[in-house]
Amino acid sequence: MDRNRTGFDQGVFDAMVAVALVVFGLLGTGPAGLNQGMGTGRATYPLVVVAALALAVRRRWPLATLAVVTAATTAYLLLGYPYGPILISFFVAVYTVAAYRPVRIAALAGAGALVGLLAHVFVGARPTGLTGLMPVAAWVVVPFAIGATVGTTARLGRENAARKRIEEARRLADAERLRVAREVHDVVGHGLAAIHMQAEIALHLLKKKPEQAEAALTAISRTSKEALDELRVTLTVVRRDEAAAERAPTPGLAQLPQLRDRLAGAGVPVDVEITGEPRPLPVAVDLTAYRVVQESLTNVLRHAGPATATVRIRYAPTEVTVEVTDTGRGPAAEPGRAGGYGLAGMRERVTVLGGSFAAGPGSGGGFQVYATLPVEEVA
To answer: What class is the 252-379 domain?
Structure first.
């Protein structure tokens, strides 16, 4: 069944309108005839009832409804019966066609109804001549204009709503692509940077200290496997494979020890300091905090040269703070660092969650990344 926005059944409403017009026609046609000095006949009330009852299916079959109502109304007027409630049924039928059918089809149907209605002006039991032309035409023109306006407005509203749905779907798709690109950048970028550094170490030690080179190669194997596992998790989430996603949970601050070990294997010692009581965080906050640390340490690996890094995590009742500092060469030796995609991606991740982000030269040299992420206060 067709329902309007309030959930009310339109078919029931149309049936109620039809019954109301039947009652109105039966009660009002006689008095209308007395006021006009015109009587009624044997066919008066059957025609009134037919015209009114046809409106019960006006929205389902608007053209057929208009044809029936026009035929009944034309016969009624040709027989010389008084102007009365039957014209209300005709008005509603014309309005419905104009509102629920394309303008061209509705115009043709309205023209046919106008021809039928005008017949009694020139022929029939009580022809009125040209003096009745305009008043009778108004019974078609007025409801048609109202219906066309309402119908056009409704169609434009539906088209606008559909366009907004398409734009929203496109926006969500773009946001999803950006999210996946950011995840892949973080995972692959960090993994490749660590592997590159470990490979350089292995090549340097291969002839002089092969046993240490073996350790570096082992670190490469471990790092590549971890990066592939993390990338697999990212792509699994994109495919909405919930069962597989549960088997490989989203990275978070709990994985900091593994991240620290990977960087140590690549030649960058990392200290991790935690202040406050660690607690489970919302998935988005936990992942963002981890990505900030991961990308910051990747930048240290790529740009800082021989350096150490310190990661500080502070848990507060309403927020978690991430700070990453290093003892590297600092921004003077790396002019392109602050404008990289990684920092832009970190800033976007943090601000989307309502947090704050800052990155720049450290007060004692090196580079510093600072992010604050809001979380709900634990009671």
So the answer is: alpha beta
